Amino acid sequence: MVAMAPATKQSSKPVFKTSSPFTETKWPEIAPDHQEVILELLCNLITPLGDYRRTHIHPSKGKKRKRTTKPSPDDSTMAETAPPPPDIGKHLLIGLNSVTRHLEALAAQNAPTTAPVFASKNHHQASEAAKEQSAPKELSERNSSTNKQDSQVEKKGVLRPLSMVILTHPKPALSPAHAHLPTLVHLSILSSGPASTIPTRLIPLPTSTDARLASKLHIPRVGALAIHGGAPGARALEEYVREHVGVTECKWIDEAMTAEWRGLNVAAEVPGGRD
Q: Spans of biased composition, class Polar residues (predicted)?
């Protein structure tokens, strides 16, 4: 027999990859015992709203052909005698879309500009002169736009901050549908004023909690649920969450706002070997 020569090892070339130089977002880690307590307090808070929906709000039966039928006396009596819904219903946001829209509005209201503007003195003086020349022409337009904005603010009211956002997903950091929430939460609590806002807590819960919350609210699915700060009956839940749930760290936003060069982050990877 002829002995086979040993196969020579081929040298693998390193692969260079670049990544973001900013600090990665860190979601809070909640112990299972704390998750159970938070879930119990949350269920006690939303149960009255679910009982009201179960008793006084009937599910839609779908579209039917229009007929000239007389309304049932039982329906009219129930509509007249239905009590007002619980106050907690005005302080809840149910569903990922509703929570996202509210956070986007808060971020647009509180977040500063994304990049500072550095202008020279000559440019500043020229812009001031142009403003003075165009001021008489634009005065009436500014007044009218200001009045419109004031009326819109009076109609819409001031947006209320959120004390917490509950997600029925155990690892939202790996979910593309939830990746935007830390950024929106961080931007929503930024403010140029002296008053400080208590950070909104992001609370990831197991997937099995979705069915329980949906049953308590008497709806098909929850997905996400947010509670306004100072909601009636939510004081015990808020205090427990602030004590046992950390703040979601989104430091890359503050680092990006400084507009400083942070260098290039390069990692070398060798296929089948060590970095």
A: 8-21, 70-79
User: How many domains does one find in the chain?
Assistant: 1
Query: Which residue segment(s) compose the domain that 208 sits in?
Result: 26-55+86-112+157-246
Which structure tokens are listed for 149? Answer: 């904005």
pLDDT tens string 167-225: 999 888 888 889 889 888 888 877 644 445 688 999 999 999 999 999 999 999 999 99
Q: Is the dihedral of CA 162, 164, 169, 173 positive or negative?
A: positive
By C-alpha distance, which of 160, 130, 133 is closest to 226? 160
Tell me how crowded residue 120 is: count the other CB atoms within 10 A of its CB.
8
Q: Is 228 part of a structural domain of the chain?
A: yes
Half-sphere exposure of 107 (CA within 13 A, CB side): 17
Is the pTM of the predicted complex or chain greater than 0.70?
no
Q: Are 165 and 181 in contact (CB under 8 A)?
A: yes
Residue 66 lies in a domain: no
